[in-house]
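Running this now, will post back.
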Amino acid sequence: MRIRRILAAVFATAALAGLGLTGAATATAATAAATATPASVTPGECTDGGGKIDRSTPVLPTCRGGMYDGRTVD
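Update: finished.
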């Protein structure tokens, strides 16, 4: 009877440890996705980041200066 209790405790501990590891991996992946820089920015993001919209570029307007310097503006 004692062995069953010990085994149950070992399995429960292993299961909880596994959930903790997957939770940490999910949180890390979510943080990495949130901090990825976008290929293009909105006009508001450009100006909020300290830049100005340069509409003289041939294809798409470009953000000049600030945090998003050189990115296209959609």
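The mean pLDDT is 78. More later if anyone needs it.
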